[in-house]
Design a protein that fits this description.
heterodimer; A: about 0% strand; B: seven-stranded mixed beta sheet; 42 strands; globular
């Protein structure tokens, strides 16, 4: 049983990696996760929970499709409830992965290599979760293809002025580009797995997806070029996709939605929430899969700094919205914001403020931002806060808009909650499968920026587990190396 | 009259592979009947003795839509929600479809055989032990049959009982004139109107429709405007339009009337034979500064408009008040100068509570109790043990539409024919007789009241048509009969206006309560019982449309509530909408308590007609384990004080289930209330007539907008028809008939209590109700909001699949089969007029769609109400007001075939057609001579939320009041 092997020294995940040079150690550290005969016990527990949540997810979607979307709490005037909040939430989460993969790559922030693979995977799975919602939240979910520009005998095209239509293209582009980027990035690592595989099936499966990678310099050259091009393509998507999603609201007339701050506000929020999800995944992953040498405390610290920065951006946006609502002189706009803070949904608003504005401020304290479990906790709190931000934007603005006669109060139903929780189930199921079978860390990239490639010779030679005190921080930032001694 | 033109007979599946249906066409088509083309027939319905003349649209032999009779001088096309909702009752699957003996179904033939023998025996005994309990009816035929029965059977007793009717008006005129007269108000010449607790434009007031229309015509600020003062107990439709309103409990009106008499008599010459004026009563409330100011201003205004005023008292006021009002009208020369008219009121029956009590106390002597309609086991006062008496009667026969509470106890139940299946007649308040003609043969072989009485008189096969013709000599000739059926009234049958001579009136006596003395606290509140504006006395409890219709003032559906003023709510620390226990005379009911701003201090109001146990699957059915809708206020009602009772107490009873409201109650959080007050002045624009005359454009200036720019030239030039609508806020009384008319016309489903409490009601048109000012003295305005058919529609821009498009004539077309239900259009609509089918409401409610046929014949009957011109929507699609595009298209086709232009007013949307006050006007804006084009050009015409640059085609005419400068 996996339990027994945990108590012995031969823990396949937390013991010292095998190899006589740093590169071999890195390879082993990452590859052994997929090659272990069994995943850690924590994986089984998590997978069990995720799988049951995912089943609940598809069950609740089935209920909605069978009986009608009245099984949710949607009503008039809040015609968009949990499904759209979930959609924006999941799409937002995806952006952090693309930012880490693409933008940080272009900015030569080489510390990204420890986390970019699973961050990108997180993006893919988040987009999968997100993409389901626009399809199922519609009243007649057997007809989503009407939104696609498919030539037909009626000569009917979709209505291109609609932001929901733009969503189709934006999210579609995002999904396509992300999958290509992620997959292409994994090819050298698939080849590594193929070459190390001990069974025929593994060799064939990994060989299939490795697409004949031989590691020749010509292939490497093309790989680097292609990586650069895809990074350049993916970079604008970080800004554009969530901007387009924000247009769902910004182009509408409703006070609380109709504001030009939304595109940058949503993008900042997406990065914020996405990084929070990245740290939420990183902390247990490095703990249970023994990746502490690769995903070090310094990486966590850097991500927490990004959280402070984006958290402040988001906090600024909240404040600016309030200011503009007052400054505009529009009584509807002013009322909407005061209503958010002090009306019937005040509980949601203050949850959002506490989770999004107050909690990341704890990361100003070095001890907290270098503590993995504090990082995890604050990451989860921020995720909750970001979900509530979308809830506040969508539901409170709709609940009380122009005409007081249409004011209402949205109350979620159990099916709503099951759908929300279930989407996490889908996400974690996919993510856990990724952890088990796919290269969790970008092996080739980590190696490319190993200090032994540069002047410093620290690293695996000391056999320590990667946690360091304050002294080394300065050098790490200077050299921007992927692993530290 | 035709039977169903084509009938679908289902053949049994007798071993064939496919189920066979046989269509049986008529072998000879009746003249003028083209299949698929609707026809209109004139008929009438009667509620509590009040007649409503109607036009009913019939498709292929089934009536689908009810309108007012536009040719009838008393309604001119208007109708209230009772009338609009009545057609659904015809197809109610819970209707009784068989006669019952002791609860067990028997055939009608069995009943006829029994009746023949039984009544023959009764006739032989001279009617001893025979009691007939009938509803109040204006029917001359029923009256004639009653006289015949009492003549043939002198020992029989005929008692008329109508729970919501009162004899106070009649008694009042006897006090004043010595003989019963009916009062008719004529508003054309009236400049000042004073209402003493009278909702004279409401559905339960005699000539309410006529009054509404005529009164609305005096509320046009571009001409001379009348001034309306209302002194009332709780908000009513008249109160909503009042220029000045004073909230006083109903029991205090008597003192007010006496005060007015005293004051007015000081300044007018009253002939000595009219007697002395009343002395001003010693009532503390009259000394209140506000009340004094109000009443003195009223007196001054009345005196300044001698001969051009109307004073009217509410039917539930005691007879002395009515007598006093007659005296006041005479003193002010209104009767001489033609604002108040009288006709003799000879043959109307008295609502006989004493007779009912005698019946009950004499229960042992009842041989046969014949109950014609009504539901006395449910509606009789709680101190009259009618249910007991009914069980004790040796034979009891209840003629009723439903197997209701009374039929449960009666030994025989006979299914009644719905008015749309009946021959009969009714007499309107002015005496004009309308022949009631059936539009469909009785679905369940029901009998009418006149047929049953005829049966009791020995007629074995009673024929309603023959009975009616026999009653009226004017109908003897076929020609006049057909003419009467065509017109919808027998011309020449109205009563003559008479000169009523006033008698002297005695000095009024007051008790402590009527002077407003004594402690007014919990335990001594006044409790008023009113006929519910939707289910009336309970007869429409099983009507889904009417249950779901939001009440005019509270916007509550699927429930009744005790209405309370803010003072009582504060004392009780009551949260608006939470449950309360209402106790009167030791009996209690628990129901929601709703705060009504502007209700009189110390006054509680509760509607009758709820809490029924045997209404049917909609209203409450013990047999089907369906909880009653609302609470039964009849349990609190006694025969001593059936309308205005004293001594009520109220206590909090916890939160209760969410109310099914279509609009927030007044009592939301303070932030919300302030938010409403901040913007309501722009949404519902109001002003005084002086302000309007000085600066006609003040309405536009209420909202400061920069010039509204457009990024592009609109692609449509609207050169053909340009449909538009104008809604006059000066005229809307909030009756919500338009809402029910729209529901009937457009196949709008009923969703039920829980979905409505979530906010999922499907009504395309809604009437918004806004309070303004302090809750003790709040003003109130109604604003009907249909789809505004915006030229720059926000909904069209955001639909990803193009399911909502703009037509060349300016309509925002909803394409149901393209809609996939993203609901973005609803989110972007600032007016929130779009409705979404969250479930397949039609399937759930009707039980039949094209995809799920049913063999259940009752469900098939229910689907007969659908208007075949309008799609029945499935789940997952959006729907909204279409300006009755089916009517527009039909008229365009007809006009095109006849090669002529469409006349103004030829197309009437359902809401416009039924509006009693003609507040809604629809037409072609490109037709320069059309009414709607003229109204759009008025300076007080504004677009709701016009600053959003939506260019709505619906514009509102601002509410201009005519306040008294002394009271401003």
């Amino acid at each position: 049983m996996a339990l027994l092997s945990n108590i012995t020294n031969e823990n396949p995940f937390t013991g010292a990696p095998i190899g006589d040079n740093p590169f071999a150690k890195i390879t082993d550290n990452v590859a052994r996760v997929a090659e272990a005969s069994r995943p850690p016990r924590a994986w089984y527990i998590a997978f069990g929970i995720a799988l049951s949540l995912m089943t609940a997810f598809f069950g609740s979607l089935g209920l909605a499709a069978w009986y009608g979307i009245g099984v949710w709490g949607n009503m008039m005037p809040v015609a968009w409830g949990f499904p759209i909040v979930n959609f924006v939430f999941w799409i937002g989460i995806g952006h952090a992965g693309t930012l880490i993969s693409a933008i940080l790559f272009l900015l030569r922030q080489n510390w990204r290599t420890a986390i970019n693979r699973f961050a990108e995977a997180m993006t893919i799975f988040a987009v999968v979760c997100a993409g389901i919602f626009p399809g199922v939240h519609i009243g007649r979910p057997w007809m989503p293809y009407y939104m696609f520009p498919i030539p037909n005998q009626m000569n009917m095209w979709p209505q291109f002025r609609s932001p929901l239509e733009w969503d189709i293209f934006a999210v579609g582009t995002y999904a396509t580009t992300s999958i290509l980027f992620w997959y292409m990035g994994m090819i050298p690592d698939f080849a590594t797995f193929r070459d190390r595989s001990k069974t025929t099936i593994r060799r064939l499966m990994y060989g299939l997806v490795a697409m004949g990678w031989r590691g020749s310099s010509r292939q490497w050259h093309r790989y680097e070029r292609a990586y650069l091009i895809l990074a350049a393509l993916a970079t604008p998507l970080v800004l554009s996709v969530h901007s387009v999603v924000s247009f769902d609201f910004a182009t509408a007339q409703i006070p609380g939605w109709h504001t030009t701050i939304f595109p940058p506000y949503f993008v900042a929020g997406a990065i914020f929430g996405g990084f929070a999800m990245v740290v939420t995944l990183a902390v247990p992953a490095r703990q249970f899969f023994g990746l502490k040498r690769i995903i070090t405390i310094d990486h966590l610290e850097l991500m927490n700094k990004v959280l402070i920065a984006t958290g402040l951006l988001v906090g600024y946006a909240y404040g600016m919205e309030f200011f503009i609502a007052w400054y505009s002189g529009s009584k509807y706009e002013g009322f909407t914001f005061v209503n958010r803070a002090f009306g019937p949904y005040a509980w949601a608003y203050w949850t959002m403020i506490t989770c999004n504005v107050l909690s990341p401020q704890l990361h100003w304290f070095r001890k907290i931002r270098r503590n993995p479990w504090a990082t995890l906790l604050i990451g989860m709190v921020i995720n909750v806060g970001m979900w509530f931000e979308r809830f506040v934007i969508i539901c409170t603005s709709l609940a009380r808009d122009f005409l007081p006669s249409s004011w209402g109060y949205f109350i979620p139903t159990p099916v709503d909650l099951m759908t929300l929780g279930g989407s996490f189930g889908l996400f974690f199921t996919l993510f856990l499968l990724f952890c088990r079978y796919l290269p969790m860390v970008a092996i080739s990239e980590v190696k490319a920026f190993h200090p032994s490639m540069l002047s410093h010779g620290h690293g695996y030679a000391h056999g320590d587990d990667g946690d360091h005190g304050p002294g080394h921080e300065h050098k790490q930032v200077e050299m921007a190396s992927a692993t530290s001694s | 009259m035709e039977l169903m033109g084509a009938s679908l007979a289902l053949a049994g599946v007798t071993g064939c592979r496919w189920q066979e249906d046989h269509l049986l066409p008529e072998s000879r088509r009746a003249e003028g009947l083209v299949p698929g083309v609707p026809r209109k027939f004139a008929t009438a319905m009667e509620i509590a003795g009040q007649a409503s003349p109607l036009h009913v649209t019939s498709y292929d032999g089934r009536p689908t839509k009810v309108q007012g009779n536009s040719a009838h001088p008393e309604c001119l096309g208007g109708a209230f929600p009772y009338q609009q909702g009545s057609v659904l009752g015809l197809y109610d699957p819970d209707r009784s479809d068989t006669a019952r003996q002791g609860g067990k179904p028997v055939s009608l033939a069995a009943f006829s055989a029994f009746a023949k023998e039984h009544f023959a025996a009764a006739r032989a005994k001279g009617g001893a032990g025979l009691y007939v309990l009938s509803e109040k009816s204006s029917s001359p035929t029923l009256g004639a049959l009653r006289r015949q029965l009492l003549a043939t059977m002198p020992q029989a007793k005929w008692i008329t009982y109508e729970p919501t009717a009162t004899d106070n008006v009649r008694a009042g005129s006897v006090l004043a004139f010595g003989a019963p007269y009916r009062t008719h108000l004529r508003f054309e010449a009236a400049r000042v109107i004073l209402s003493l607790d009278a909702d004279f434009i409401g559905p339960n007031f005699p000539e309410g429709l006529l009054n509404a229309r005529a009164f609305a015509k005096t509320r046009v600020p571009e001409k001379e405007m009348s001034r309306l003062y209302v002194i009332e107990n709780t908000y009513s439709h008249a109160g909503a339009l009042a220029d000045h309103r004073l909230a006083l409990r109903s029991e205090l009106i008597k003192a007010v009337a006496a005060y007015l008499d005293a004051e007015i008599s000081k300044h007018v010459q009253i002939l000595p034979q009219f007697g002395a004026a009343q002395t001003p009563p010693n009532a503390p409330f009259l000394a209140d500064a506000g009340v004094q100011k109000f009443l003195n201003a009223v007196v001054k205004d009345l005196l300044a408009n001698i001969g051009h005023s109307i004073i009217v008292a509410g039917p539930t006021q005691p007879p002395e008040v009515h007598a006093l009002v007659h005296r006041l009208n005479a003193a002010l020369a209104n009767t001489a100068q033609s604002t108040v008219f009288y006709t003799k009121d000879e043959d109307a029956e008295v609502v006989d509570v004493q007779g009912l009590k005698a019946l009950v106390s004499n229960a042992a002597a009842i041989e046969t109790l014949l109950i014609l309609g009504g539901n006395p086991a449910y509606t009789t006062p709680s101190d009259v043990a009618f249910a007991d008496a009914l069980s004790k009667a040796k034979t009891s026969i209840h003629l009723s539409l439903y197997n209701d509470e009374t039929s449960q106890l009666a030994s025989w139940h006979v299914p009644q024919a719905h008015y749309l299946e009946s021959w009969g007649d009714v007499r309107s308040h002015t005496g004009l007789v309308t022949v009631v003609q059936p539009l469909i043969a009785p679905l369940y072989n029901g009998l009418t009241a006149i047929e049953l009485v005829a049966m009791a008189l020995g007629d074995e096969k009673p024929d309603g048509k023959a009975l009616v013709r026999k009653t009226h000599e004017l109908l003897a000739s076929d020609r006049t009969f057909r003419r009467a059926l065509n017109d919808g009234f027998i011309s020449g049958s109205q009563a003559r206006f008479e000169l009523a001579t006033l008698k002297a009136s005695a000095p009024l006596q007051f008790n402590e309560r009527e002077l407003g003395q004594g402690r007014l606290g919990n335990g001594s509140y006044q409790l008023s019982f009113i006929a519910d504006p939707k289910v009336h006395d309970g007869r429409y409890s099983n009507n889904g449309w009417l249950q779901e219709l939001p009440s005019s003032f509270t916007k509550v559906g699927w429930d009744n509530a005790v209405l309370m003023p803010i003072g009582i709510a504060q004392e009780l620390n009551h949260t608006d909408g939470y449950l309360v226990t209402l106790t009167l005379g030791g009996k209690s009911i628990t129901l929601p308590g709703v705060i009504v701003p502007g209700q009189a201090e110390g006054s509680l109001v509760v509607a009758l007609g709820y809490g029924r146990t045997h209404a049917g699957k909609v209203g409450g059915s013990a047999a089907d384990d369906i909880a009653p809708v609302g609470a039964n206020a009849y349990l609190l009602r006694t025969s001593e004080a059936p309308f205005i009772a004293a001594g009520a107490s109220i206590a909090s009873a916890g939160e209760g289930p969410r109310l099914a409201i279509s609009q927030d109650l007044w009592g939301i959080d303070k932030l919300g209330r302030d938010g409403i007050q901040e913007r309501v002045g722009e949404l519902v624009r109001e002003g005084g007539i002086e302000e309007y005359r000085k600066n006609p454009h003040f309405v536009q200036e209420k909202v400061e907008t920069k010039p509204l720019l457009s990024l592009w030239v609109p692609p449509v030039s609207y050169e053909g028809h340009k449909w538009g609508m104008s809604i006059d806020l000066n005229k809307c009384i909030g009756c919500s008939a338009c809402v029910t008319a729209c529901q009937a016309e457009n196949n709008i489903p009923v969703v039920g209590r829980k979905p409505m409490s979530m906010g999922r009601e499907m009504l395309w048109l809604r009437v918004d109700r806004y309070y303004s000012g302090e809750p003790e003295t709040a003003g109130l305005v109604f604003q009907p909001v249909p789809c505004q058919q915006c030229e720059n529609a926000p909904c069209e821009q955001v639909c990803p699949v193009g399911a909502t498009m703009h037509s060349r004539e300016g309509l925002n077309d909803m394409v149901y089969n393209r809609c996939i239900g993203t609901r973005y259009c609803s989110n972007n609509c600032p007016y929130k007029v779009r409705r979404f089918n969250y479930f397949n409401y039609n399937l759930d409610v009707i039980g039949i769609t094209p995809f799920t046929p049913t063999d259940d014949p009752k469900m098939k009957v229910k689907s007969m109400q659908f208007n075949p011109e309008v799609t029945v929507r499935s789940r997952g699609v959006m729907e909204k007001c279409t300006f009755c595009v089916q009517r527009i298209q039909n008229t365009k086709i007809r006009a095109k075939n006849e090669k002529r232009p469409i006349a103004d007013g030829e197309i009437k949307t359902a809401c416009q057609q039924t509006c009693p006050t003609e507040a809604i006007v629809f037409g072609d804006l490109n037709d320069q001579k059309s009414e709607v084009a003229r109204l759009h050009k008025l300076p007080r015409s504004y677009a709701l939320l016009g600053e959003l640059n939506n260019h709505p085609r619906v514009q509102y005419l601002a509410r201009i009041q005519n306040p008294n400068p002394e009271l401003v």
